[in-house]
Design goal:
Blueprint lengths: L2 H15 L11 H17 L3 H17 L3 H20 L4 H25 L3 H20 L8 H21 L7 H13 L3 H17 L3 H17 L3 H9 L5 H4 L2 H14 L3 H8 L9 H8 L19 H8 L6 H7 L3 H9 L55 H19 L6 H21 L1
Length: about 450
């Protein structure tokens, strides 16, 4: 049986495994996934890469429905590798090759997301690196004036740095060195000097944590070269002095070469610059950095390239772009509210994952409570009238002036309404008020 016939037979087996019947109520995703994988391998052996990639994608979907996330990610990677083969086929032209590169990058990104969810840091970093390399290859195939070139390069660099960040989060710094080196060579090759400085600033602490002193010295010399290529002598001096707290760096050949290079650059001595660059220490730098150093001259340096700094966490930015939506409810919950849109328009830096969440509804205001009913106060009992014979006659010396009597009467009358408007009283307060009223009546009776 030929490979093509075997592939079609496996594909038919996978389709039958997905069908349901009276005695088979649910599809057999596990059997379908394995059959599709066999079909993909047979299609590839038969020279049918397009059908092989399609079979791998169907196998990944079957693995995902069978809750075998690692198997799905592996199939997505295999399909992406085949898509990259389509990209390298020049017969499709620039646009066709770019579409295949984007498709491969999307599959690598899906695999990386699944690997991260499963806690497989090494595989996730590898998938992110492949995604960045696919985007970089797609950007390199475009002319410099193409509108998609710079966005693709930026996304490629972010994926490579995100791959390094994944390894750092899982304490696997030793595996991030190669990815950092690939990212550095990429941005230097594309003459993006600002991005190269950002990558170097991330690489130096990693090399120091790994006790790679020789490698960190080479990176400091590379930073001096990049700054001089940007025609920024001040930044080159600052990069040269950053390692002065390291005694090994002060005694290294890289430090001496950087010092001599800066001195010759300040003197505008082209012959001395070429003599310094001809030293063997420059041949041990990264390949693209060594090529830049070979053509370095104070008279042809330029500031061409993009100097926009990268964001602090490329991994967080990547998560914001590739956040999966599993249902319509999740999509509705993630839709930005009017308030979040207003915040993002005023300050884009504040717009993020929290800005997309709807603002919580304000708590209803408590209903106004009616004041408690006032306790009725018993009216004071009238004073008993005295017999006319028992009332002593007032002597002229003890008589009260009419003005004083009027003032006292007015004061008592003012006191009564003040007590009545003071609000509800308790039972004890009511009794005290009644006693005070009795005393006031007695005083008035006495004064009269």
């Amino acid at each position: 049986m030929s490979a093509l016939s075997a592939a079609r037979k496996h594909a038919a087996t996978a389709k039958s495994a997905l069908k349901t019947s009276m005695f088979k109520w649910s599809p057999d995703y596990v059997s379908a996934a394995h059959a599709y994988e066999k079909a993909a391998i047979s299609f590839k052996a038969a020279g049918e890469p397009a059908e092989s990639a399609e079979a791998y994608e169907k196998a990944a979907e079957a693995h995902a429905k069978a809750e075998n996330e690692a198997g799905a990610a592996k199939c997505w990677e295999s399909a992406a590798d085949i898509r990259l083969g389509f990209f390298r086929d020049q017969s499709k032209g620039i646009e066709g090759g770019l579409a295949e590169a984007k498709a491969a990058a999307a599959l690598f990104g899906q695999a990386a997301m699944v690997y991260r969810e499963e806690g497989m840091a090494a595989q996730a970093s590898s998938a992110l690196t492949k995604k960045g390399q696919a985007l970089a290859d797609g950007a390199a195939s475009l002319p410099e004036a193409h509108k998609e070139r710079d966005p693709l390069l930026t996304e490629a660099l972010q994926n490579m740095l995100a791959a390094c960040e994944v390894l750092e989060l899982h304490n696997k710094l030793v595996f991030s060195k190669d990815t950092y080196r690939n990212a550095l060579n990429l941005v230097v090759k594309m003459r993006r000097w600002g991005d190269a400085i950002q990558v170097l600033s991330k690489m130096i602490p990693v090399y120091k944590d790994l006790n790679q002193t020789s490698g960190s010295h080479k990176l400091r010399l590379s930073a001096v070269i990049i700054h001089l290529q940007r025609n920024d002598l001040t930044a080159a001096r600052a990069a040269f002095r950053e390692g002065f707290d390291d005694a090994d760096y002060l005694r290294s050949e890289e430090c001496a070469a950087a010092e001599d290079l800066l001195r010759a650059w300040e003197a505008l001595d082209v012959d001395e610059v070429r003599a310094v660059i001809a030293r063997p220490v420059f041949t041990f730098l990264e390949r693209q950095v060594a090529l830049v150093a070979r053509d370095l001259s104070p008279y042809n340096a330029s500031a061409q390239g993009r100097d926009e700094p990268l964001m602090a966490s490329p991994l967080a930015a990547l998560d914001a772009k590739t956040e999966p939506v599993s249902s319509s409810e999740t999509l509705q919950a993630a839709a930005p509210t009017a308030e979040a849109q207003a915040v993002s328009e005023e300050d884009p830096n504040r717009a993020g994952l929290f800005a997309r969440k709807p603002a919580p509804a304000p708590a209803p205001a408590p209903a106004p409570t009616e004041p408690p009913a006032a306790v009725p106060v018993a009216a004071p009992a009238p004073a008993p009238a005295l017999a006319p014979s028992s009332v002593p006659e007032a002597s002229p010396a003890a008589s009260v002036p009419t003005a004083e009597l009027a003032d006292a009467t007015q004061a008592v009358s003012d006191e009564e309404p003040r007590q009545s408007t003071a609000g509800p009283k308790s039972h004890v307060q009511a009794e005290v008020a009644a006693d005070d009223a009795d005393e006031d009546e007695d005083d008035l009776a006495f004064l009269r």
